[in-house]
Amino acid sequence: MLRRALKWTAFRSLSIDHLRPLLSSHSSPSNFSSSTSLRTPTDNFTDRAVEDVAYPSITPSPPSATIAIDRSGLCNPPEHSHEATADSEIVRHLKSIIKFRGGPISVAEYMEEVLTNPKAGFYINRDVFGAEGDFITSPEVSQMFGEMIGVWAMCLWEQMGQPNKINFVELGPGRGTLMADLLRGTSKFKKFIESLSVHLVECSPTLQKLQHSNLKCVDENGIGENATISTLAGTPVSWHPTLEEVPSGVPTIIIAHEFYDALPIHQFQRTSRGWCEKMIDVADDSLFRFVLSPNPTPANIFLTRRFNWAAEDDLAKLGQIEVCPRAMELTESIAKRISSDGGGALIIDYGLNGIVSDSLQAIRKHKFVHILDSPGSADLSAYVDFASIRHSAEEASENVSVHGPITQSQFLGALGINFRVEALLQNCTDDQAESMRAGYWQLVGEGEAPFWEGPDDQVQIGMGTRYLVMAVVNKKQGAPVPFES
């Protein structure tokens, strides 16, 4: 049955003979999942009416002590309601910030507090991944995803001249599933494995412990110390709160899978008086609500920058826009490091190769909920603006080149996922083969799986075209696979 699924799209095979043992290995599958709830945004974005107003020039001004509230012309999401309950710790914290400021906070600050507040942030004290969590990511779907990322990393390492030491960095590694599958899959390539020093950028103590366990780490001095070793491949592992704290000076390979989508965004709306930032305030009934700032905010600097990268025709059609300063700054840091140390970065996420207008979403227990409903109990994420990433990298350094984005289906197919799935099928039980087929479709398929025979509410949804892949590499190394053509 899987072979019928393989006929849906033709993939280029990776013409690197020495990697064929990795793809064709008859090792048993290590993890399967037939769950269908993916961390992908809804398709039914609301297109708001655009006022017939010429695009104004934006001159940022210093923020005032208080922010006046203007609700005229605000594009509100659908009404939501929930029964009054005692405020959670994060809700009390958000309300105290608003009260102290004497006015509303930005959507970006709301996102940052809700997701990464040290005491009550969504990511900090829980495992949010997998069927028992709130959403499922590609590494949780099938071991093949991490294995294909390993193929890409080995190819880049070869283009770099097979250096003896590599900083291998993953941003936001979740449970550590991707890294575990990558190390397990490449463990037979001793020279590559021996060059790696793994660095996990993770701010959640709970997830650090999960990563430590899933990578089968042993250490003498505790999590995050240099003595920590992953027994999957004998590789040293360390943890860092930010990319800046990862040691520099040696070639670096960076993986950012579903990391950019959780970075805080600012939302702006076009009004009769120009572009106004959407803010979050507390209403008279003590519930959160959206309002508009009547004056330019500090984030207008990044709005102006994003507009400078856009075509006038695209701007004329806009009623709303999202900008992500943190993504711009992170990309600049990545580009500068790759420029000075060599190496490359792989960015995989859902998004657009252009302006993003209104994509912010909240997911709780695999279901979409209102963004302002029970803050801290749902994941918040937004479409990634891949065009913005490209411009940020190219402006940061002339020594890097940006490739893509291409679809996840094209990326995995070119790296040889078809060879790998055929090899795994030779050592599968019938139940495992069925899960393999479902996992394969989720990774490379588009829309609903045509072969699905189960309940309608569990239909397999493919991520093959929803997710995009972009690479940023040092120009000296040439174009990475599979971006050569």
Automatic annotation (TrEMBL):
Biased composition, class Low complexity, residue ranges: 24-40
Keywords from the named record: Methyltransferase, Mitochondrion, Transferase, Transit peptide
One BP term from GO: mitochondrial respiratory chain complex I assembly
Region (Disordered): 24-43, 59-85
Reactions it catalyzes: L-arginyl-[protein] + 2 S-adenosyl-L-methionine = N(omega),N(omega)'-dimethyl-L-arginyl-[protein] + 2 S-adenosyl-L-homocysteine + 2 H(+)
Primary residence: mitochondrion
Pfam families assigned to the protein according to its UniProt record, in alphabetical order: Methyltransf_28
UniProt xrefs under InterPro entries: NDUFAF7, NDUFAF7_sf, SAM-dependent_MTases_sf
Source species, domain of life: Eukaryota
Gene3D superfamilies referenced in this protein's UniProt entry, alphabetically: 3.40.50.12710
Entry GO terms, CC: mitochondrion
Record EC number: 2.1.1.320
Subcellular location: Mitochondrion
GO molecular function term, any single one: protein-arginine omega-N symmetric methyltransferase activity
Record PANTHER family: PROTEIN ARGININE METHYLTRANSFERASE NDUFAF7, MITOCHONDRIAL (PTHR12049:SF7)
Similarity comment: family membership: Belongs to the NDUFAF7 family.
Function: Arginine methyltransferase involved in the assembly or stability of mitochondrial NADH:ubiquinone oxidoreductase complex (complex I). Acts by mediating symmetric dimethylation of 'Arg-118' of NDUFS2 after it assembles into the complex I, stabilizing the early intermediate complex.
Name under which the protein is recorded: Protein arginine methyltransferase NDUFAF7
The species this protein was found in: Nepenthes gracilis
